[in-house]
Amino acid sequence: MKKKSKCYTLITGASAGIGRATALMAAAKNHNLILTARRLDRLQALQLECLKAGATDVQIFEVDVRNRASVEALAQQMKAQNIKLKNLINNAGLAKGTELFQNADLNNFNEMIDTNVKGLLNVTRIMLPFLIETRGHIINLGSVAGRLVYEGGSVYCASKFAVRALTEGLRMDLKGTGIRVTNIAPGMVNTDFSLVRLGNQQKADSVYSDMMPLSANDIAETILWCVERPAHVNIQELVIYPTDQATVGQVVRGEKSIKNLTEFDKSFEE
Ligand SMILES: NC(=O)c1ccc[n+]([C@@H]2O[C@H](COP(=O)([O-])OP(=O)(O)OC[C@H]3O[C@@H](n4cnc5c(N)ncnc54)[C@H](OP(=O)(O)O)[C@@H]3O)[C@@H](O)[C@H]2O)c1
């Protein structure tokens, strides 16, 4: 009988937020993990947490997705160890700034496109031979910003529209390989995302003030649910907003926030 090989889940941007939460949840489900990001110290701490949570093998690599050579070096190491990659979670991404286009810093535009679009292309193209071998699953972190454009967000939105287009195109080009491709499109998730975007903790906190955003764990659960569907089921796209966000730019705060309404609901259970 053919010996079974250990399969791995690779997460980009695992050092914080959604990537980190997904790593911990996948570890608790005994996935073997390859965790990548630029901040190696954070990955080292996470590696220990994942091993404690239930993963048997957790490998960490300092990878900047914008740097093709660093992604190629990762692939070389994986090849040398005969690693079988089952799931690729293209999570690394960011937004920078909220200025109107005419006032915005061109460096921010480049950083968003280089990370969210070109970084995802680097990782996906270089990892595809591994995924074709295992009939793997690609999960792309898109956004509701990949469905609707908002003022001061044109380039971030353009990058996430691109992620959505790439997800659809990949599904077409890869048909017949057994590979599944999924776009996860979250609304507001309370992570370091707003801190990175606005560069200031106070401003970042105000984004989520007096309302109940999604948590990184909410998205991690969603990602793993998609991965756990049987091989013949591909969740093509999943749009997930907090209840307090009706759509982009329409957020309920204060007494009508679900935070307060759920307090009210508890009185029915008594
Ligand atoms: N939070 C939200 O409201 C929200 C909503 C919709 C979609 N998303 C998407 O969800 C994904 C995760 O974001 P998050 O909310 O978890 O934000 P986060 O807490 O800031 O985490 C972002 C992660 O991406 C990594 N990263 C950024 N640039 C990178 C690069 N060049 N190379 C490698 N890794 C890089 C960061 O690690 P290092 O800095 O250590 O490299 C970090 O681990 C992003 O694609 C984001 O666009 C977020």
Keywords:
alpha/beta, 270 residues, 7-stranded parallel sheet, 47% helix, two-stranded parallel sheet, 18% strand, single chain, binds NADP nicotinamide-adenine-dinucleotide phosphate, Rossmann fold
Can you summarize this structure?
Helix content is about 45%, strand content about 20%. The chain is an alpha/beta fold and about 270 residues long. A seven-stranded parallel sheet has the order 3-2-1-4-5-6-9, with helices on both faces.
Report on the structure:
- The chain is an alpha/beta fold.
- It has one domain: NAD(P)-binding Rossmann-like Domain (Rossmann fold), CATH 3.40.50.720.
- It has nine helices and eleven strands.
- The protein has helices at 17-28, 40-53, 68-80, 106-134, 154-173, 193-198, 201-207, 216-228, 258-269, and strands at 7-12, 32-37, 58-62, 84-90, 137-141, 180-186, 189-190, 214-215, 237-240, 245-247, 250-251.
- The strands form three sheets. Strands 3-2-1-4-5-6-9 form a seven-stranded parallel β-sheet, with helices on both faces.
- The longest helix has 29 residues, at 106-134.
- It is globular, with a radius of gyration of 19 Å.
- The mean pLDDT is 96.
- Bound molecules: NADP nicotinamide-adenine-dinucleotide phosphate.
- NADP nicotinamide-adenine-dinucleotide phosphate binds at residues 12-19, 37-39, 63-66, 91-94, 115, 119, 141, 143, 186, 188-189, 191-193, 196, 216.
